[in-house]
Amino acid sequence: MKYDRILIRYGELSTKGRNRNKFVDKLKKNIRRAIQNYSTAFVEGDLERMYVVLGEEKLEDIVKVLKNIFGIQSFSPAVKVEKDIEQMKNIALTLVQKLYQPGMTFKVTGRRADKSFEFSTDQINREFGAHLLINIPGLTVNVKKPDINLRIEVRKEAAYLFSETILGAGGYPSGSNGKAMLMLSGGIDSPVAGYLSLKRGLEVEGVHFFSPPFTSERAKQKVIDLTEKLSLISGEMALHIVPFTEIQQLIHSQVPSNYTMTTTRRMMLRITDELRKKQNGLAIITGESLGQVASQTLESMYTINEITNTPVLRPLIMMDKTEIIELSQKIDTHDISILPYEDCCTIFVPASPKTKPKREKVQHYESFIDFEPYIQKAVENTEMLIIRPGHSLKQDNLEDLF
Ligand code: ATP
Ligand code: MG
Questions:
Q1: Angle, nearest 10°, between helix axes 189-199 and 217-234?
Q2: Nearest atom within ligand 1 for CA of residue 188
Q3: Comparing C-alpha atoms, which of 223, 219, 173 is closest to residue 198?
Q4: Which domains does the chain have, with CATH numbers?
Q5: Contact yes or no for 234/175 (Cβ under 8 A)
Q6: Which of 181, 183, 245, 383 has the most ligand 1 atoms within 8 A of CB, as the residue to mutate?
Q7: Is the peptide bond before 213 cis (omega within 30 degrees of 0)?
Q8: Does residue 395 surpass a pLDDT of 50?
Q9: Measuring CA to CA, how many Å separate 399 from each of 98, 170, 228?
Q10: Does the Cβ of 288 fall within 6 Å of ligand 1?
Q11: pLDDT, tens digit (0-9, with 9 covering 90-100), for 315-330
Q12: First to last CA, the chain
């Protein structure tokens, strides 16, 4: 007996009512794309159930891929059998024999979705239970907490037998919950914020502020590499590179130094919001974490956030740095993030930025400058890249990530 397919469970999707169609469709597409290098495997299924049929592929390889796909609650290697009791019994026996170790307990959980099947659910449980007990000496029943739970699902087209349940990545299928712009620096935090947003099913486009010649091509490459890591989840990701030098120089020549950081952040948010409108997004995502640095105090956020009423999502806001670092290691962005580089904000950072900037003050300082044409110019000159897996990594490195 060989597992010929993997049964996929949707989890949270079941609560999505009328959106279910869209979610299942997205998930199907995402799985299809993720297994495209395994040419004999394919996805089949409907609103109720989805299967990856293994073809000639190795079960372990496909399991590895599925573990990284959002929107899958759990999955089970399964065997499809004709609805013939004798054949089903044979498969059930080999399946349990494969999993059985001395001293283990079991139960059978039958499900008759096809009401025309000759056995009721109860009869399935008893018939198959007895067959296993007779043929596997030492095996005992435990209905509450069995080591092996053999599930037999009788559906219209066939019966499916499976036992192990492997935990999936959870969340929603990437791209199923609308679009948001991720403010992506080269640091540790923002890629993690991007990952969590993708997990929640958002379509994410990156926005990076770049200040040549104060920041180098290398710094830009770093952000491209980070985007590439995120694109492994979503398949591809747009990255907008905003030329920011002129605005930063303007701020530094016009605004008192302890308020430059506040104004800089306000301008970054304004430009990101413009790009959001252009791209039909509905939110902005940042890697901010409460209290971490001067720009991330509550007072700072209150003053910076004033310039827009677009939702600003901050997935890391209540997380500790150690938790964020752990996640960055898990998603493999950490080692890129810690490479030395010049960030547009660290270069222009004032000696003592205000930790409690006031709205009235910053409004006053900014009132002497007409930022609008500069903002429009920055938006116009923004470069948009589409980053896909393999953009800068070699194919064999890529496989390690799954
Ligand atoms: P990160 O590790 O994400 O850089 P951080 O702890 O270094 O965060 P800041 O540098 O204050 O904190 O940045 C706060 C947030 O502002 C970042 O998480 C990111 O969302 C955004 N941001 C900062 N610099 C840039 C940049 N150059 N381009 C785009 N967004 C940026
Ligand atoms: Mg930073």
A1: 20
A2: 2
A3: 173
A4: 5-167 (3.30.2130.30), 179-401 (3.40.50.620)
A5: yes
A6: 183
A7: yes
A8: no
A9: 29, 22, 14
A10: yes
A11: 999 999 999 999 999 9
A12: 27
